Amino acid sequence: MNASNAREIEFVYDFGSPNAYLAWKVLPDIADRRGAGLISTPILLGGLFRLTGNRSPNETFAGVKNKLEYEQLDIDRFVAKHHLDAFRHNPHFPVNTLVLMRGAVAAAALGIADAYQAAIFAGMWENGQKLDDERVFDSVLDAAGLPVAELSQLCRSPEIKQQLIDNTQKAFDRGAFGAPSFFIGNDLYFGKDRLREIEEALQGDQRIAPEI
After folding, report:
1. Hey, what domains does the chain have and what are their CATH numbers?
2. What pLDDT sits at residue 5?
């Protein structure tokens, strides 16, 4: 994972985050509007949590009255605003994403990162599939026309495993503590609610007209 430049959005993600899915759906339009590049960096969110001492919102806010309800309201508003009608909560959540994220690194090495990302995000947050079941995972890849055997073999390779570890460590070293995170140059933004600020940053001194 290299530091992104000032005209490039780096999207640091784990498939296990619903907010990463929601941001992924919106980011391409932002990049297109601002003439910016968009790159994706897969990390292991659990590994990042271990490095930072962070925990998932379900754990962190479990005892906070109304907090998780507001988190759901925030998602509902985002979905409605951006017409993301395909979004569904995964009934198997939380899903172990270790193999999924190794697969993302492997797919990038094979030059099929976009197709892999689309298949797994859809399986997780549109179709509600239990993707930490190997048979389900393989069936999703096969349905998307992706090379199941080659990806499975690469996921077990020391090089791919190490690359995912390195991606996660570098994200931590640059200040990330959760997903989705975004970098523009060396500037870190966290969470889907920072997409507006990302677009403003890409505009430079020009401000986006306030929403009514």
Report:
1. 8-203 (3.40.30.10)
2. 59
